[in-house]
Amino acid sequence: MVTIDDLGILRDVSYDGATLVVTITPTYSGCPAIGAIRADIDAALRGAGFDDVDVRTALHPAWTTDWVSAEGRRKLHEHGISPPTHGATATTGPVPLTLSLPTRLLTCPRCGSSDTRETSHFGSTACKSLHRCRSCGEPFEHVKEL
Ligand SMILES: [Zn+2]
């Protein structure tokens, strides 16, 4: 439903001599999907007639959820997944720290209510958390800000 471009994983496509070089950045270093994503890019390009393909991984700068495009956020919301808040990780100067869990004000992607609560910090994948809407009762996943 969302492309690697929507998610900000695709960083660059260029030629190094005769080799088509695709540079990707994993969403986080332990993401198990990156191997499958590499293989899919390689297979798709070879299927499209590119024989000399190199899929490279760039770990720096590190991926952040701010790289998810507006289109990617729209698609996630449309598919019932609460998208990460844009700019939530952007900070300058001192960072306030707290020892208590921050209150998350997430909006239910189904009914729009902000009366939601986290039911699990981990969802179907480590980068998502599980929530339930107290208004419509529906559970939903949220892509965590990184
Ligand atoms: Zn709801």
UniProtKB/TrEMBL annotation:
Ranges for domain MIP18 family-like come to: 3-49
Q: Quote the InterPro entries the UniProt record gives.
A: Fe-S_Maturation_MIP18 (IPR052339), FSCA_dom_sf (IPR034904), MIP18-like (IPR002744), PaaD-like (IPR011883), Zn_ribbon_PaaD (IPR056572)
Q: Which Gene3D superfamilies match?
A: Fe-S cluster assembly (FSCA)
Q: Which residues form the PaaD zinc beta ribbon domain?
A: 98-144
This one is known as: Phenylacetate-CoA oxygenase subunit PaaJ
